[in-house]
Amino acid sequence: MAETEPTAVSESKQTLGPVAIAVDGAHVRYKVYEEPKLTARGLFNRAMRGRRSTEVHAVRGVSVEVNVGEAVGIVGSNGSGKSTLLRAIAGLQTLSAGSIQVRGEVGLLGVGAALKPTLSGYRNVMLGGLALGLSKDEVNERLDEVAEFSGLGSAMGRPMNTYSSGMRARLAFSIATLRVPDILLIDEALAVGDKDFRERSLARLDEIREAAGTIVMVTHNLSEIRKTCSRSIWFDQGEIRMDGETEAVLSEYSDER
Ligand SMILES: Nc1ncnc2c1ncn2[C@@H]1O[C@H](COP(=O)(O)OP(=O)(O)OP(=O)(O)O)[C@@H](O)[C@H]1O
Known about the structure:
Protein name: Teichoic acid transport system ATP-binding protein
Structural class: alpha/beta
Family: Belongs to the ABC transporter superfamily.
CATH superfamily of the largest domain: P-loop containing nucleotide triphosphate hydrolases
CATH class of the largest domain: Alpha Beta
CATH topology of the largest domain: Rossmann fold
GO molecular function, one term: ABC-type transporter activity
Organism: Ilumatobacter fluminis
Strand content: 25-35%
Oligomer: single chain
Keywords: ATP-binding, Nucleotide-binding, Transport
Bound molecules: adenosine-5'-triphosphate
Helix content: 25-40%
């Protein structure tokens, strides 16, 4: 089986062709270990035999292209392979076959964004900004703007482990948009924010798209996709079941559920 790493093609935006992401015959297989049903006998047998190794074929020969400036929504049932594909596009997941080419910088925004729980919101903004390549002065200049956008108020000075999950998501989203990558991948990052924050985040995503950024967004919230994406992809059991205009795809998808 050929192992193909996603490749990053760094070129300036001015020289870009229309394709931002090219996925060609991508497969992802996970090796997983299973144990038998836990009866007393099963427990005994497990101890004696060890666990059984099996394979989950999460992405099955996916080919798709996304153009620069497009905003594409990905829908599909739990376990259909959406997050795996996003991680592969971000270069965080090795393909077992096929290839993925991206033009420019890719940022993956998810609820599991790497924030430091014991540090305050402000300190997390500083660390996140530095990790995104901004200088200390640049982050300092934008600290108030980020605090205001997050709407966290005085909670910005408190340790993040005192935040609710929605507050953490607000902070993660606000930090991630400090520096807009050429390609922004969003995995359910808006799901836990409240209505007011989601609306502001969607407006921010519009600005990103207008700045010629490319967005690929995985969410179970169809209205978010309707607001942001003109094109959508329906993922089903690791394959693309439908790819087209958002309304057409979402209506077929909703009929099926
Ligand atoms: N790290 C992993 N190791 C083993 N199997 C995994 C791993 N991550 C995902 N899988 C499996 O791959 C399949 C696709 O999972 P994935 O998270 O990509 O689905 P998804 O469409 O994003 O689901 P959801 O809508 O629930 O977030 C599932 O069967 C899942 O159990």
